[in-house]
């Protein structure tokens, strides 16, 4: 079982996602366990502020270090330290997420997501607590909840047993060197739109060749960078 913590001032956003679909199924199967920590509860009374003005001036506010360190003190006091733990801070200036990173994280025993807001979090938190700074793309969102949930989703679906057919996850786009091929299901014909005959033939080798050709075609058009990397692979690697 992998334990996943979300540290957030907006816990309802997190509960709305982890209570649905594959993430919920993973918890029901006891393959994941979720902990949602309300950041406001760890701030100082009477105002329970989690942000303050930045030293040195500048626009915006910065999330204070005390509430975050206090949450980690509590997590460690619960006896779950010393395990295979990664602390993830979703941030636009982090390393761009890819399938390989998600696969690596899926093998951990515990993930802790710090969901930032405003201009970010105090650098002392990043320097002393965070192990991975991850970006989901070259754009800025209002908070870290959505990126954290996206990262968590990419990880959880790779845990064996979460998805009924694990082969489905292993053959997704970015799991290999090429993008995924087109998929068709019943009915064979709908509104004069037909399923390719090759997929109905039962000829496994020809079907595999068709799928590979479609993968190469799509990758060459949509991601020429990936297509070039594929061409540079040796025959054995391919």
**Spatial strand arrangement across the major sheet:** 2-1-6-5-7
Beta-strand portion reads 15-25%
Outline type: elongated
Average pLDDT confidence is 92
Helix/strand structural class: alpha/beta
CATH architecture of the largest domain: 3-Layer(aba) Sandwich
Count of strand segments: 9
Q: Which fold name is given in CATH as the topology of the largest domain?
A: Alpha/beta knot
What is the gyration radius calculated from CA atoms? 22 Å
In whole angstroms, the N-to-C terminal distance is: 33 Å
- Report helical residue fraction: 25-40%
Write the layout of secondary structure elements.
Layout (H helix, E strand, L loop, with lengths): L1 E7 L2 H8 L2 H8 L3 E7 L12 E2 L9 E2 L1 H13 L7 E12 L2 H7 L4 E5 L8 H6 L3 E4 L9 H12 L9 H5 L18 E2 L2 E2 L2 H4 L3 H19 L1 H9 L6
Parallel strand pairs: 1-2, 1-6, 5-6, 5-7
Antiparallel strand pairs: 3-4, 8-9
Question: What does the model show?
Answer:
It contains ten helices and nine strands. It is α/β, with parallel strands linked by helices and 238 residues long. The chain has two domains: 2-156, 3-Layer(aba) Sandwich (Alpha/beta knot); 176-232, Orthogonal Bundle (Trp Operon Repressor, Chain A), CATH 1.10.1270. β5, α4 and β6 (110-114) form a beta-alpha-beta unit. The chain is elongated, with a radius of gyration of 22 Å. The model has no long low-confidence stretch (mean pLDDT 92).
């Amino acid at each position: 079982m992998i334990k996943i913590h979300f540290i957030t001032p907006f816990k309802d956003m997190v509960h709305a996602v982890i209570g649905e679909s594959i993430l919920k199924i993973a918890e029901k199967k006891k393959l994941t366990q979720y902990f949602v920590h309300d950041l406001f509860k760890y701030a100082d009374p009477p105002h329970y502020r989690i942000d303050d003005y930045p030293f040195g001036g500048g626009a915006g506010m910065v999330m204070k270090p005390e509430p975050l360190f206090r949450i980690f003190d509590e997590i460690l006091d619960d006896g779950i330290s010393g395990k295979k733990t990664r602390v993830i801070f979703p941030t636009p200036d982090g390393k761009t997420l890819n399938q390989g990173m998600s696969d690596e994280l899926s093998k951990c025993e515990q993930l802790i997501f710090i969901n930032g807001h405003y201009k970010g979090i105090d650098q002392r938190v990043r320097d002393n607590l965070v192990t991975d700074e991850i970006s989901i793309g070259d754009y800025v969102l209002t908070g870290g909840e959505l990126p954290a949930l996206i990262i968590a989703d990419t990880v959880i679906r790779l845990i064996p047993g979460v998805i009924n057919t694990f082969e489905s996850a292993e053959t997704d786009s970015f799991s290999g060197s090429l993008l995924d091929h087109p998929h068709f299901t019943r009915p064979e014909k709908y509104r004069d739109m037909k399923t390719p005959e090759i997929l109905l033939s039962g000829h496994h080798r020809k079907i595999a060749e068709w799928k590979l050709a479609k993968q190469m075609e799509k990758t060459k058009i949509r991601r020429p960078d990936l297509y070039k990397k594929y061409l540079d692979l040796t025959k054995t690697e391919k």
